[in-house]
Hints:
Strands 1, 5, 8, 9 and 10 form a 5-stranded mixed β-sheet that branches. A 3-stranded antiparallel β-sheet has the order 2-7-6. A two-stranded antiparallel ribbon has the order 3-4. It has helices at 53-71, 116-123, 184-243, 253-265, 267-276, 281-286, 304-315, 321-328, 332-345, and strands spanning 3-7, 26-30, 33-37, 47-51, 79-82, 91-98, 108-114, 129-137, 143-145, 149-154, 165-166, 172-173. α3 (184-243) crosses α4. It is rod-shaped, with a radius of gyration of 50 Å. The chain is α+β, with helices and mostly antiparallel strands. Helix content is 43%, strand content 17%.
Amino acid sequence: MKTQLVQCHISTLPAIDLSGAELPADIQYMPPGVNYVTPASGGGKKLKINVHAGTAERLQASLEMMKAKADAGEDNLPFLDFEHRDGEASGHPTRFFWGGDDKKKGGVRLALDWTSDGGDKVKGKVFTKFSPQFLHNAQTGEVVGAPVNMGGLVNRAAFKNIAPVLGKDGTQTQHENMETETDQAELIAAKDQEIASLQKKVTDLTAKTSEIETLNGKIKRLEDAATVQAKEIATDYVKTHGVAAGRIPPADAALIKHCEDLYLTNPVACKAMIERMQVNPALATVVPNGAGGSAVQAKAGEDPFLVKAKEFGDARKITDPMKAQAEFAQTSAGNVLYQAYVQKMRGGK
């Protein structure tokens, strides 16, 4: 956005009203409606100035901001000068307000405190007119604020742009506070862009977080499925190569679980351990031959626990030999036979 610091005497600006005995408490800062000015450095190009109630509000906001900075010792107190020389003060602005649509009494008006020098020169008619100084958006024609030096007493037109400021004699007049007189509208636009950029980053991060959560959910489901599958493989191996092969008593739940857990952490070690176990032919004949098999008749010479467990299962119509042995081992008589059987399976005498 192209912005200029405009110093001008608008052609329709009336002279300062000195009809009363006292100095005026307020002056017309800008006449209402559409005005045109031609800054000296603008190559003869006219600038359109829109003046309305919103103009007074923006100027008042600038004044309040600069007065707050002055009170905090961060900047100079807003003032009016003589002929845009940026030197002695002719007055100090106190308030901007909208005076209505009357060409002479309305527009943007400025309440001020006159300095003794300013008051004397107005009363003595050394200066008869006022020239405002303000920040202007050349694209929209809007007044967006004002600098610390808000204008000056003059007798004829003086047009100056923002940097450097050209005096009526064509020389450059440096404003020591020019660096701080940044266009408020540009600052607001820059902040809006910064906020929009931050909001986009938040939106992007939220989307990425959602995507990460979705991926984590998929990973968790895959891990759970892999865990279930691994447990099924471990159970199947121990049942087939340990229990069904006659190496592990079907009622020894602790040993079966130990082998399954070992298979999950170290399959090679588990397989080696089971292969080293002694096969009990009698046990192998009673345990189903693989998953889904059925028990066969116990042979002569079989361990008493196995024989009694089969009888226990037949009496209770338990078709699964391993379930029959497990339930029989929970009874008083079955537990005694089971302990002896386990001892024998582990090489005891």
